[in-house]
Write a structure and sequence with these properties.
Oligomer: heterodimer
Helix content of chain A: 25-40%
Number of helices of chain A: 14
Largest sheet of chain A: 7 strands, mixed
Order of helices and strands of chain B: EEEEEEEEHHHHHEHHEEEEEEHHEEEH
CATH superfamily of the largest domain in chain B: Chloramphenicol acetyltransferase-like domain
Structural class of chain A: alpha/beta
Radius of gyration of chain A: 23 Å
Strand content of chain B: 15-25%
Distance between the termini of chain B: 63 Å
CATH class of the largest domain in chain B: Alpha Beta
Distance between the termini of chain A: 69 Å
Radius of gyration of chain B: 26 Å
Number of strands of chain B: 18
């Protein structure tokens, strides 16, 4: 048997866990990571990465069907659902193997199995009781197995799983979660997506582009409820123009399943009822933290609404036990988990760590058009009592956007009128997920509108719209 | 739209002039007809009147600037509702050379090459000069690392960001540091914040002049830094002038003997008080300030503070520095009480146990080096004081009385005065009143 005593054991090898493990190893800590199913977690096996692969196929398919707009011809484009899914799995598999390689390179011991924290300083690993989601990538080699492990610090990074609402319980065949939606055996004829957060909207956009008749039902009064209302409205307009059916302020009150169809009972907030018959349903009503079966209850680790309660450095109320990522609360995003993990382990190693400012975590949604944002929405900024200066610049005024054939979209910036602090940035349109980071850096460095105005943005790029939006907030926009 | 204010032609032949003085600061409200600035030509000084109303948005040409061409942009006036950023697009076409005395703290004067570097045959650029374009240099001229937002909030609240300690990466000053400072009120008032000082000779340049190993470096403690900072600030920003005269101590000394002899004694034979000459000086200064109330002042840009009571600071030398505890309402206190308070202050000052409220404020101070045999000297004003009295030793001197020379005990005193708050004649009046009380202590009873 290999080593059984470590400085730190991380439970869960998702993006939060494995990044924390690598950073721990860099800091000279003897590090082990326990994983029961797949290196890279949901993110790169069943989430962020394989959906991006699917959406890329959808994007190219969209261009094929619109080739004429670019002076090209592509007669009778067709799609092979199995091949699209296969590509997505291969992308995921490549990164899954990559994580194994990175952990090995950094001398992080991978322990294969399911972990229980028996007491602070002790983790017992047993054989996983959860069957791995298929198709699974091959298990990594050189892992340790069942046994009792000693460690100074335990970091819980067990992530989250799809929330199941009563009456909407996923069944794996007709009512899907993101797992099944990721590997459709064939394109369904019609699809109901319940929930219009990032996961729901991305699948809706993918299937809609692939020719499926898709309806999205959202209980709130706008799609993508965390986004700025104006941006969400523009995204909705574009998605509807592409054929998506969207119902807001509406809920699915029940599902009736037949052999080849599901009948959904739909009810608006005004009490208007209707029925919708679809082939498949995707339940995308959020995720809940994986806090169970870890032994945390017995140790008295404090939880709140399904998540572990931590301080700014990932510390729980029990000394020696830490939590990071989805299991430690929203926003449940891979990049938040990674950052939280690094802060946690640096603090453990005695480095000068700063708690994360959750107000500066960007969010990206890869539907078509894309949506990206950071900071306060207009409504939230107003509610916080700021006097605002708001800049808007539409894609239609940007040369690169017009050349790309992507002239629909908006870059919106929100400043505090008094101090010039950039409070929020919100974008909808082509490639905005690659643009938002510019504003994240600006916000993190506490630039004011003045510094952004003085920044040179390369021409011709979509990023020029970021500059113009800032200029617009101060009445100095050029190309409008 | 912001209104540009241009250098006016005061005569048909005028081509350029000196911007002598700004009478409105950035942020001041301007009414039509207000005097904005004074312009000097080689012939005359003229005033620039405001034609429009608004707020002074930006002063482009600093006061003291010579040879400003006619029609050059000198300032920007903002309309109601416009904020300062609206003025930012405006800049002078060719920034004219400014004379050294200029501008506000956040834009320090260009560094002057220290004479030593020329002597040493080195390049004229001083070592500390590299970062002068940075918006907020620290007191020693080094670059201050601060976020743009932190700088702006500090500026809007009127203090120099260089006084803060940063909590960001590598000690960078960020928004939360400024907000914390605003909450804690540390460098709140502009007066309380030591202004950024123009760099003196760089440390390296000084060190290089001495043979290595021929000296040791004693790091500055907090008190040394504050003394350096505050007194440099005082000498640079407070226009000092000095008034001296001699006081006859004969009467005071005999009163002192009689008072101390008459002190009630306790069971151990210890007298209830033993007043010193210095106690008389404190009391006399307090009474003089009541007699000449216009001199009991503190200068602020917003207006003169005229104090009702005589709060007299007394410099107490302690190992490694000095402190100036303040005897409050000294005009209303008897000599015995002043004496008791002074003894307590001096003891606690030496133990470094004074509370800030015990050494802050006051409108004047006494610095007495008489016990060291110093005949006379002049002291540096400790803002917010308007004056400081430097007291020399009491000694027997030949004095002309009538037409004969007599030997009498004399004491020379020098009053340093902030000319912004107290003019020459007023200072003389104050010192005269002081002399009157010292030479006839009984007058302090009336």
């Amino acid at each position: 048997m290999s080593e059984t005593s470590f400085d730190v054991i991380i439970i869960g090898a998702g993006p939060g866990g494995y990044v924390t493990a690598i950073r721990a190893a860099q800091l000279g800590l003897k590090t082990a990571i326990v994983e029961r199913e797949h290196l890279g977690g949901i993110c790169l096996n069943w989430g962020c990465i394989p959906t991006k692969a699917l959406l890329r196929s959808a994007e190219i398919y969209h261009y094929m069907t619109h080739a004429k707009d670019y002076g090209l011809s592509c007669d009778n484009p067709s799609l092979d659902a199995a091949a699209v899914v296969d590509r997505s799995r291969k992308v995921s598999g490549r990164l899954n193997g990559g994580v194994g390689h990175l952990l090995k390179k950094n001398k992080v011991q991978v322990i294969w199995g399911e972990a229980t924290v028996t007491k602070p300083g002790e983790v017992v690993v047993s054989k996983s009781k959860k069957p791995a989601m298929q198709p699974a990538h091959p298990d990594p080699k050189g892992t340790a197995g069942e046994g009792t492990y000693k460690t100074k610090h335990i970091i819980v990074a067990t992530g989250a799983r799809p929330r199941a609402l009563p009456g909407l319980e996923p069944d794996g065949s007709q009512v899907w979660t993101y797992f099944e939606a990721m590997v459709p055996p064939a394109m369904p004829k019609s699809l109901l997506v319940v929930g219009s957060g990032a996961i729901g909207i991305e699948f809706a956009s993918f299937y809609n582009t692939m020719g499926v008749d898709v309806t999205v039902v959202e209980i709130m009064d706008q799609i993508m409820p965390v986004e700025d209302a104006e941006i969400a409205k523009l995204a909705r307009k574009q998605l509807e123009k592409a054929g998506l059916k969207i119902m807001t302020s509406t809920k699915v009150s029940g599902l009736k399943k037949a052999k080849d169809s599901v009948t959904a009972a739909i009810e608006t907030d005004k009490g208007e009822k209707s029925e919708l018959v679809v082939e498949k349903v995707i339940s995308a009503v959020g995720v809940v933290g994986n806090i169970e079966n870890l032994g945390l209850e017995a140790l008295g680790v404090k939880t709140d609404r399904g998540c572990i309660v931590i301080d700014g450095f990932g510390r729980t109320n029990v000394s020696g036990i830490y939590a990071i990522g989805d299991v430690a609360g929203p926003p449940m995003l891979a990049h938040k988990a990674e950052h939280e993990g690094v802060i946690c382990i640096e603090k453990i190693a005695g480095k000068n760590a700063h708690p994360m400012d959750k107000g500066q975590i960007p969010g990206c949604t890869y539907c078509h058009p894309q949506v990206a944002s950071v900071g306060l929405t207009e409504a939230a900024a107003k509610a916080a009592g700021h006097e605002l200066k708001i800049g808007r610049f539409p894609f239609i005024g940007n040369g690169k956007a017009i050349a790309l054939g992507e002239d629909q979209g908006l870059v919106k910036t929100i400043f505090d009128a008094k101090t010039g602090q950039l409070l929020g940035a919100h974008m909808v349109g082509a490639e905005v997920t690659e643009l938002i980071q510019g504003f994240v850096v600006a916000m993190g460095l506490e630039t004011t509108e003045e510094d952004l105005m003085h920044t040179v943005f390369p021409h011709p790029t979509l990023s020029e719209m970021m500059h113009e939006s800032v200029l617009d907030a101060y009445g100095r926009v050029i190309h409008m | 739209m912001p209104t540009p204010i241009l250098m006016p032609a005061l005569s048909p032949t005028m081509e350029k002039g000196k911007l002598a003085k700004w009478l409105k600061a950035e942020g001041d409200v301007v009414k039509s007809g207000d005097i904005l600035a004074e312009i000097e030509t080689d012939k005359a000084t003229m005033e620039v009147e405001a034609v429009d109303e608004g707020t002074m948005g930006k002063i482009v040409v600093a006061e003291g600037t010579d040879d400003v061409p006619v029609n050059e942009l000198i300032a920007v006036l903002l309309e109601e509702g416009e904020d300062a950023s609206a003025a930012e697009g405006f800049t002078a076409k060719a920034p004219p050379k400014a004379s050294p005395k200029k501008e506000e703290a956040s834009e320090p004067p260009q560094p002057v090459a220290p004479a030593s570097s020329t002597l040493a045959g080195e390049a004229a650029a001083p070592a500390a000069g590299g970062e002068q374009s940075a918006a907020a240099p620290a007191a020693n001229g080094a670059r201050v690392f601060a976020s743009p937002l932190a700088r702006r909030i500090a500026k809007q609240n009127g203090f120099d960001i260089a006084v803060l300690k940063g909590s960001g990466p590598h000690g960078r000053i960020v928004k939360r540091d400024v907000e914390q400072a605003l909450k804690d009120g540390v460098p709140k008032a502009p007066a309380a914040a030591p202004a950024a000082l123009p760099p003196g000779m760089a440390d390296d340049a000084v060190v290089k002049m001495f043979e290595p190993g021929s000296f040791e470096v004693v790091p500055h403690d907090g008190m040394r830094k504050i003394i350096a900072q505050r007194l440099t600030q005082s000498k640079q920003t407070v226009p000092h002038f000095y008034l001296s005269l001699d006081c006859d101590l004969e009467s005071l000394l005999s009163v002192r003997v009689r008072l101390n002899d008459a002190a009630p004694k306790d069971a151990d034979g210890k007298p209830a008080y033993k007043v010193s000459v210095n106690d008389f000086i404190i009391k006399a200064m307090a009474m003089a300030l009541q007699r000449v109330p216009d001199a009991n002042a503190s200068w602020t840009d917003g207006g003169m503070l005229l104090h009702k009571h005589s709060d007299v600071g007394v410099a107490v030398a302690i190992p490694g520095g000095l402190l100036t505890p303040v005897i409050r309402k000294a005009e209303a206190k008897g000599l015995a009480q002043i004496s008791t308070e002074m003894k307590d202050y001096a003891a606690r000052a030496r133990a470094r146990k004074l509370m800030p409220e015990e050494y802050q404020g006051g409108s004047t101070a006494i610095s007495n080096l008489g016990m060291m045999g110093i005949k006379n000297f002049s002291a540096v004003i400790n803002p917010p004081h308007a004056t400081i009295l430097a007291v020399g030793t009491g000694e027997k001197r030949p004095v002309v009385v009538g037409n004969t020379v007599e030997v009498r005990t004399q004491m020379s005193v020098t009053l340093s005065t902030d000319h912004r708050a107290v003019d020459g004649a007023l200072g003389a009046e104050l010192l005269g009143a002081f002399k009157g009380f010292i030479e006839e202590p009984a007058l302090m009873l009336v």
